[in-house]
Amino acid sequence: MPATELDRAAGEDRGVAEEDRLRADLYNFLGAILARPPDAFLIEQCAGLLGDDSELGQAIDRLAGVARLARPETVEREFNRLFIGLGRGELLPYASYYLTGFLNEKPLARLRRDMIALGLARAESVFEPEDNIASLMEMMGALIVGRFGPPAGLGTQRDFFNGHIAPWAGLFYTDLEAAKEAVFYAPVGTVGRLFMAIETEAFRMSGTAGDARG
Predict the structure, then answer these.
(1) Average pLDDT in the 22-42 region?
(2) What is the pLDDT of residue 20?
(3) Are the CB atoms for 113 and 88 separated by under 8 Å?
(4) Is residue 94 helix, strand or coil?
(5) CA 29, 32, 38: angle at the middle one, nearest 5?
(6) What CA–CA distance (Å, rounded) separates 145 from 152?
(7) How would you class 136 by CB atoms within 10 Å of its CB: exposed for 0-12, middle for 13-18, buried for 19 or more?
(8) Torsions phi, psi of 146, nearest 5?
């Protein structure tokens, strides 16, 4: 069962609100599409997405439109040019690189420390550093619905987001949106950028509300 379906089932079993399950779905979607080149099934899922009149919804519609014209082999070549390349791709999707200019730096060490505290661990089949954008999206989705334990409270979600995602993910998605090699992935960048902005504002408001109550 895909991670999104696992998380949805876990969320339903644990009484997670529908709004939060939808947030987890979008985190998991971004994680899946950035972890590896999407196969025909995932591209077909993208082609079937339906947005709404919001800015994020319109970006989702654009992604669906691009996906309807995409072929797996073409998207795989695009993925490789963006993220792998000869030596390196056009983008390096790691927190350490975006925050320090180097790989495997203090942001990765801090993330690993917090992962231990939260009961999160890198899958044995994954060899990328944990501060890869795809891994962080998947971790956030898992925390929301409690895939590896009880669903994380809003404060825990906010701390993880503010500590490991907010400082750089929006910039990464902006870069992806404008990347020279991005065709299929350009609207993925738009979706990610807008979603990160929504999450940043929601967590900011939740923190403000908590401070007011305190």
Answers:
(1) 97
(2) 96
(3) no
(4) strand
(5) 110
(6) 7
(7) buried
(8) 75, 45
The helix/strand/coil state of 144 is helix
Domains of the chain from N-terminus onward: 3-213 (1.10.3480.10)
CA distance 144 to 51: 22
Calculate the average pLDDT of the chain: 91
Burial of 93 (0-12, 13-18, 19+ CB in 10 A): buried
Neighbours of 171 (CB within 10 A): 13
Q: Within 10 Å of residue 26's Cβ, how many Cβ atoms?
A: 20
Prediction pTM value: 0.90
Structure tokens given for 134: 């795809």
Q: How far, CA to CA in Å, does 179 sit from each of 9, 85, 93, 117, 146?
A: 36, 14, 12, 36, 34
